[in-house]
Amino acid sequence: MNQPKIKFTLLGTGTSSGVPTISCKCDTCVSNDIRDKRLRCSVMIETDTTRVIIDSSADFRQQMLKYNVDKLDAVVYTHHHFDHISGFDDIRAFNFTSKKQMPIYLNSKTLESIKSIFSYAFGKAEQIGGGIPKIDVNIIEEDNFIIGDIEFEIIKLMHGNLPVLGFRIGNFAYCTDTNYISEESLSKLKGLDYLILDSLRFTPHPTHFTIEESIDIAKRIGAKQTYFTHIAHNIKHSVVDPTLPKNINLAFDGLEIM
Ligand SMILES: [Zn+2]
Ligand SMILES: [Zn+2]
Ligand SMILES: [Zn+2]
């Protein structure tokens, strides 16, 4: 399948707590630089006919309003951590306007967690007052899948001991929430124009790459341009971005890639 012209918009590039972090007065959290204002991680993928987002983040509602998203064709999930799924309930707003179920694409582990956290949306609602998200579940584990005119290739990643999904769409790849990428997955990331890669902070973390580790992996993958995402408040954009190697930069909310 030939990929159509696709636009990618990074709706959120922050770690799980978001930046600024509640009650923190560090240099980044008090910064006026808009690149230091990071909502929770999500990316919007658009063609002329199809619009998909990866992860309904904790800031999903705000992201949909900020980017004037009046129509959404599907939500694809990387994994079940709360910063990536907690906007799930607000999917119902799209049910109201589209009069259709929202297709969601996720692996069985992520579905299991969403079902237990949002059990009311899966046949256990006590009372349907303001409505519940109505969804059409599509299980993805390892095979490529197509939404509208966009083809997704699954890139398996490890996030501590949790297997999570990365995605390649044409020459763009989105690999958040990871601290290990197997040789097999690395081989699927050859010839990229753009790579979005997890990079939390400088100090080690059990489930995320550090800046140094991300630089190593980015160099191995060799995309024409790499952007780091899932960035913690320890990283001030104007201080760290200029120190990164050529063709590697920190992403920021609202960054558009075409
Ligand atoms: Zn996360
Ligand atoms: Zn802070
Ligand atoms: Zn995670």
Kindly describe this structure:
- The protein is α/β, with parallel strands linked by helices.
- The protein is 19% helix and 26% strand.
- The protein has seven helices and 14 strands.
- The strands form two sheets. A seven-stranded mixed sheet has the order 6-5-4-3-2-1-14. A seven-stranded mixed sheet has the order 7-8-9-10-11-12-13, with helices on one face.
- It is globular.
- The chain starts with 6 loop residues before the first strand and ends with a strand.
- The model has no long low-confidence stretch (mean pLDDT 95).
- Bound molecules: zinc ion (3 copies).
What spatial form do the alpha-carbon principal axes imply?
globular
Distance from N terminus to C terminus (CA atoms, Å) equals: 19 Å
CATH class: Alpha Beta
Low-pLDDT sequence parts: none
The helix/strand class is alpha/beta
What value does the Rg take, in angstroms?
A: 18 Å
* Annotation field: number of helices: 7
Describe the largest sheet.
7 strands, mixed
Task: Kindly estimate the percentage of residues that lie in beta strands according to DSSP.
Answer: 25-35%
Strand order of the largest sheet: 6-5-4-3-2-1-14
Which percent bin holds the helix content? Answer: 10-25%
* CATH level-3 fold name: Metallo-beta-lactamase, Chain A
What's the structural domain tally? 1
CATH architecture: 4-Layer Sandwich
Order of helices and strands: EEEHEHHEHEEEEEHEHEHEE
According to CATH, the homologous superfamily is Ribonuclease Z/Hydroxyacylglutathione hydrolase-like
In total, the number of strands is 14
Average pLDDT over all residues: 95
Bound molecules: zinc ion
